[in-house]
Every structure is written in structure tokens, then in C-alpha cells.
Known about the structure:
The chain has about 200 residues and is an alpha/beta fold. It has one domain (about 5-175): Alpha-Beta Barrel (Aconitase, domain 4). The protein has helices spanning about 20-25, 45, 85-95, 105-115, 125-135, 165-170, 175-180, 185-195; strands at about 5-15, 70-75, 95-100, 115-120, 140-145, 150, 155-160.
Amino acid sequence: MDKFTTLEGVAAPMRIINVDTDRIIPKQYLKTIKRTGLGKGLFSEMRYRDDGSENPDFVLNKPAYRNARILVVGDNFGCGSSREHAPWALTDFGIRCVISTSFADIFFNNCAKNGILAITVSPEDLEKLFEDAERGSNATLSVDLEAQTIKGPDGGTLHFEIDSGRKESLLNGLDEIGLTLKRAPAIDAYEEKLAARGFA
């Protein structure tokens, strides 16, 4: 998993509430267990027309937001079924940070396990971030995980809260397997103790 320390980039605004995981990555893309290649299916029902052409009205198809690295989204983002393909698709597209007032719990946890920083802010702060994001590619946001800050294009800074364990995992690029391997010496010592007692 890639480390998340700081991120500066264009933020795409999506003023839509209750975006569920089926809208993030529709079911027809769930046949793979690979984490790559899913970016093309991200928000596909909104990004593409029935004939397969791009919908020019969808935010990520607009020139200013094609290379967005941050999403500023409405309440309850990532609700619905618990598909890990949703953060995989976001990462494959290039999104490393999602900011909202609230997230579905499973999606929120899946983000951290896949190197995406999901940030919860107040409705007032979200509105400020929407206004910044709606200024297009000339206005970037800077996210600093260590300092727990989001800096807007005009220098204004917001502070956000994050669980210390989640923060450590993201800063060090450790998923659950990585966290387990970090404790490998202690695990090996325990196994050796069991073997010495005849429990091997």
C-alpha cells in the first residue's frame, strides 16, 4: 500500500448525497479480484451515456477535473453494499482523498485499508471546500496527514480529526497484512515458545 503523507491536487466537487458503492463501481465490474483496471468503471453510470460516449456534464469528464486527486462529496458517501472494489476503483482512477460530512462505516474502513484518506468535516467546512473545488483546476487543495490539515487555494486552513491507528497505518503504508508483519518478531518468539513446550 502506498504511504499517504501529503497530497496536493485538484479537488472535484460532487454535490450528491447518499452515493452508494453501486454508483461508485457498478456490479458488472465486480468479476475481477485485481485492484487495477477498475478506474475505467468508476462512476460509469454517471460518466458515460448509454452509447458509451462520455457524459460531458459529469464532473470528472470536465477538463478541469480529469486529473482530480481529491473528491469533495455529499453526506453518507459509500453507503450500500460492502464492496472493496469501490476504493480500488477510486485509487486506480487516481483519487487518494475523499472529504465529506459522513461516510458509510464499511466504505470508510475499506478506504484506509487501501491507502485512501477519508476525511470527515463539519457541514460548514464542507461548504467552504465545495466552493474551493468549484473554482476548477486553478484552485488546488493541500492535505497534510501528519498535521491533520487541509489548506485551500487562498491559504485558509482547516483541521480534521483522525483515529491515531488509522493515521499511523496510512502514514506508513501499512494494510492489515503489513501491520501483522510488523509484529513478526513477537509472533515468531511466541511460536518458538509453543514449540519448546511441545505444542508445535
